[in-house]
Amino acid sequence: MAANVLRRHIGVPGLVVHYLTSVLGVGLLVIPVLAWTTAGPLSLLAWAVLILYSYPFALVFAKLSTLHPTSKGVAQFVEVAFGRRAGRIAALYLLMTLLAANPVLGLIAGRYLMAALAPGASNRASLAAGAGVILACVALNLLGVKVSGRVQLAVLVVVTGLLCTVMVLALPHGGTAGLTPVAPHGWSALGDALLICFFGFIGWENAAPIAEEVRDPARTFPRGILCAVCVVGVLYFAMALTVALTLPADQNTAEGLTGFTRLLRIATGADHATSGYLVASVLLVLTTNAWCLGTSRVVFALAREGIVPRGLSRVSPRTGTPSRAVLALVPGYSLTLGLLVATDSNESVLIKASSAAYLLVFLLAFLSAVRLVRTGPMRWTNYLVTAVTVLMLPFMGVSIGYAAGMFAVAALGEFWLTGRQRRGVRPAAVPGAHAEAHAGQAPPSPEPHRPAATAPHRPNHAHRSNHPEHPNHREHPEHLGHPEHPRNDPRER
């Protein structure tokens, strides 16, 4: 096996587990309480809208991952649809978004853990515990997908069963009195609720970076996504309804972050706060682990293309894991953690600030799908999710400003990278880089004379005239995104 090629060994069960652990977590434990506090009964409408939106939303990602099963994920979709420069900007933007927002999962896990072990701990102590959770997940990912996948499945079954039991026991203690008035904070609160609830659905795109490790993507993705969407939709609305019927809507942000323990107290009639905190922290550790996996694959793919240092694309022959890319998450997450510690802020800031950033990632993917999938039922699905995503943008508020700033930084970063490569990369070095990025092979050893077949692909008419059997390579977009099919797109700049 080449030094930077991943093995295909994830089947339908493994993909379902990855989907569930990528999405469940804050959406079950934190978001329902925060949304209920923000909008009251109107939050249930926000949940219903987003649950209905989630299936076509996830289906588009599954379709694109089937057509272009590479670890580059959304950035690969954008590149195939709009050209290399757009793909590189999307790659940098995606990486910044993941590194900035992913720590929220581990931080909430650490907050629950501290609530169980050291009640009354300071915010900075909870942030330190969250950093420890993230480091533990990085270490687990170093063991490989098979090992971490088995651990994820076993723990997910147990924790989900416990959560369902809590909901069933708590519902009889609730009442409908809190469901009126429908909009206690005004109808404008629906926008805030959508902003908060949307964070609970971030994760469907996290399967795209592991597509290069999925067996038979055309069969595995549709089956996996259908099962995962049904499970997530039922669990989310059940938890949101349980919260609405049993908890008051006058909690502050700190109480919302640990609101699940109040639900547990109602369900059991006793103070099992410690047990509740531990259950919640375990579920959030699963989600953190899944996001570390997905983000490390994005780092790996970008390293293989030379967007980040190429040494990060090395795959361990023993575990089949890009170990260096996994370890790179530690310094990558440190900036976000450092800012929170310095300002003594909690992770709820990240939830509101990063929702629009993720929404823009999704919009880039959906616009790519509109361009790449132009026939069949999926065409109308693409139009639907694109329209809904655009309509959601005005509700993101100041979060749009953060997203726009990150996108501008990504564009400047791509401009700098392009200029640096033009100045510093000799033509003889390009073939190895191009082959490493798109064919998944180790860079060739330096030789004085390379065969003509390894010359870099340049999108001009002379090149296409040498391949009469493929007069218009753009008519076959499904071949453009695979690592074994180098791109030849005249839209490259």
Overview of the structural elements:
It is a single chain. The chain is mostly helical and 493 residues long. The protein is 66% helix and 0% strand. The chain has helices at 12-23, 26-29, 31-39, 42-67, 74-82, 84-101, 103-117, 123-141, 145-170, 189-198, 217-246, 253-257, 260-268, 273-305, 323-327, 329-343, 348-372, 377-392, 399-424, 430-439, 461-465. Helix 6 (84-101) packs antiparallel against helix 17, helix 8 packs antiparallel against helix 16 (329-343) and helix 14 crosses helix 20 (430-439). It is globular, with a radius of gyration of 23 Å. The two termini are 33 Å apart.
Oligomer: single chain
Q: Report strand %.
A: under 5%
Taken from the alpha-carbon principal axes, the silhouette is globular
Q: Please count the helical segments.
A: 21
Radius of gyration: 23 Å
Between the first and last Cα atoms, what is the distance in angstroms? Answer: 33 Å
SSE pattern, N- to C-terminal: HHHHHHHHHHHHHHHHHHHHH
Number of strands: 0
How would you sum up the major sheet?
Answer: none
Structural class: mainly alpha
Poorly predicted sequence stretches spanning 5 or more consecutive residues: 426-493
Percent in helix: 55-70%
**What is the mean predicted local confidence, pLDDT?**
78
Helices, strands, pairings?
Layout: H1 12-23, H2 26-29, H3 31-39, H4 42-67, H5 74-82, H6 84-101, H7 103-117, H8 123-141, H9 145-170, H10 189-198, H11 217-246, H12 253-257, H13 260-268, H14 273-305, H15 323-327, H16 329-343, H17 348-372, H18 377-392, H19 399-424, H20 430-439, H21 461-465
Helix pairs in contact: 1-9, 1-11, 1-14, 3-10, 4-10, 4-11, 4-18, 5-6, 5-17, 6-14, 6-17, 6-19, 7-8, 7-14, 8-14, 8-16, 9-13, 9-14, 13-14, 14-20, 17-18, 17-19
